[in-house]
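queue> pop job 88
queue> type: inverse folding (structure -> sequence)
queue> payload:
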């Protein structure tokens, strides 16, 4: 496949420019379910070629690649034309934002397994083969999580994050448990998307979090693999970076907390009360260092309270899952 693709521009080396997924990653005789990879994009011509090559060079035998471009005015369309032969579906037209592009993508997807990737991120080699084998061997598997490598604009590693696997850990927020940082770090069955439904086209910043809350509730079997699935670019061109750096960071966190409370109502009033208390303590711990002009404080008393609440939330979650 590497020799069939257009030559990379410039003098780029390594994966996914001059290297491909090893042939032995694809096992002969193995049944591989169709994986639909959906790429929402807008004016990411500087990065999208790397994204596309990291998908195509997986050499996955049952792949559907869908790209939904919001009418880019840079060189994005030229790159899509360049790789047209390997893209199953692509469109470039004005849309209502990222959520709208994601909806258009998954609604056209025909794969049993779905993965989303932002057009400035890229997968690690051989990930699709591993994901395909897991979904093929476990008929009840609904969601598969892996690690995410966070990189800067030049591709240098900042850190690697291991995601939480429980709904309650996702709902408490505050950095106590790493949520799946980015769609590049997880895959799921299409029936989960069908159960969760569309992304909110009016939400341009927290659609991933709302989806994860719903998916973690809906999925009965979530599996974690101790491997890096993909690379998430975190710098001053990304929404997450700019939100975290802005004075609105606290407002955004509180919006996510309200979202978590809303999605948690099926677990009952006691669960919601504990969750609100967790958020209250987290916000208190976060505000204190800001008032003192420092980054963070050591607050063992608050941390002990949060640990106890975590235990109660998990117990209620488990009880609900057993009785449902």
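queue> result:
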């Amino acid at each position: 496949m590497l020799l069939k693709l257009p030559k990379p521009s410039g003098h780029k080396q390594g994966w996914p420019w001059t290297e491909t997924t090893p042939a032995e990653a694809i096992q002969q005789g193995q049944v591989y379910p169709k994986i639909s990879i959906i790429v929402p994009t807008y004016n990411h011509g500087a990065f999208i070629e790397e994204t596309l090559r990291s998908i195509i060079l997986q050499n996955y035998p049952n792949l559907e690649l869908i790209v939904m471009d919001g009418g880019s005015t840079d060189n994005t369309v030229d790159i899509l034309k360049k790789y047209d032969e390997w893209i199953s579906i692509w469109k470039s037209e004005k849309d209502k934002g990222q959520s709208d592009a994601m909806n258009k993508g998954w609604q056209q997807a025909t794969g049993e397994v779905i993965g989303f990737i932002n057009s400035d991120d890229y997968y690690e080699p051989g990930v699709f083969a591993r994901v395909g084998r897991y979904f093929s061997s476990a008929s009840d598997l609904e969601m598969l999580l892996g690690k995410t490598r966070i990189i800067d604009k030049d591709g240098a590693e900042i850190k690697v994050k291991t995601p939480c696997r429980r709904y309650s850990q996702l709902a408490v927020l505050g950095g106590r448990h790493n949520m799946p940082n980015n769609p590049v770090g997880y895959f799921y069955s299409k029936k989960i998307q069908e159960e969760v439904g569309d992304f909110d086209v009016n939400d341009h910043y927290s659609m991933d979090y709302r989806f994860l809350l719903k998916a973690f509730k809906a999925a009965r079997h979530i599996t974690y693999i101790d491997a890096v699935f993909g690379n998430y670019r975190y710098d001053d061109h990304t929404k997450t970076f700019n939100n975290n750096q802005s004075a609105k960071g606290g407002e955004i966190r509180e919006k996510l907390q309200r979202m978590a409370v809303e999605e948690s109502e099926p677990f009952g009033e006691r669960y919601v009360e504990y969750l609100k208390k967790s958020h209250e303590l987290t916000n208190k711990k976060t505000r204190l260092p800001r008032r003192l002009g420092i980054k963070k404080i050591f607050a063992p008393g608050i941390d002990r309270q949060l640990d106890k609440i975590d235990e109660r939330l998990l117990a209620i979650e488990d009880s609900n899952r057993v009785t449902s």
